[in-house]
Amino acid sequence: KMLAREEAVSKDEDIEDVHQMRVATRRLRAALQTVEGVFEPDIIRRYRKGLRRIAQSLGAVRDGDVFLEHLHTHRDTLPEDERPALDTLIATVTTERANARRALLDDLASKRYRAFKREFGEFLSTPGAGALPPPEPGVTQRVRDFAGSAIWRRYELWRAYETVLPNGDDATLHQARIAGKRFRYTLEFFAEVLGERVDTVLDPLIALQECLGDLQDGVTAREHMAALGLADDAGAQAYLATRTGERAPKLAELPRLWDRVDRGTYRRRLFELIVKM
């Protein structure tokens, strides 16, 4: 999926291509982390590092895309005579996004990235490459032998945020979102063996993740604008006030969404999927 989006990303015809390629790198990194007990740790770390490098370049472009999309949507809600006030902010972010895209294209064309793709492709397509010895003599470890503990551990790490999430600061909410993504990607990695009812545990998780994502987008936008030096720009400050106003409703929604992945019914449903593998 990562390679399938690469050519489209280079053409820059649809911002969704950057998003999907970035998601693919994250899912690959999560998958590698899930199976790190099965393969040589140094090999897993090397390939996760290579994926992280390209994900960072994709992320810089994606942040610009998300910011611009929200800016244009917001401008369309304004009266005609107020829309030009956002021109300076939009032009500044557009320039930043163009610079990030050039850096991304340089990374995609680099010898280091081409070498990474070749080596990683060989690793993925070579049966047994980098595998650790069996945990017990004469035993071949199957996916079902470690999938359950991997999934449940991701859920435990995610659920640990229940004591701090409702009133957490921006950094805590962001870390909770990352933990939730890792849990989600682990579920999706094992989706085929978990069966059709995996959606019953994925859907509530995705809804919560989207809320946390909207909150983080607002944080990113505020930090971005602070770095742009537009403190005296009326249009930029009016837009910032709008983003700030969007935060309270999202925070108010969090407890309900969190309860859907924290309640006993959810844990029982998840456990039933695991034991049926």
Automatic annotation (TrEMBL):
A Pfam family it matches: CHAD
Highest taxon above the source species: Bacteria
InterPro entries, per database record: CHAD_dom, CHAD_dom_sf
CHAD domain ranges (all copies): 1-263
Record-annotated membrane-spanning stretches: none
Stored SMART domains: CHAD
Listed name of the protein: Metal-chelation protein CHAD
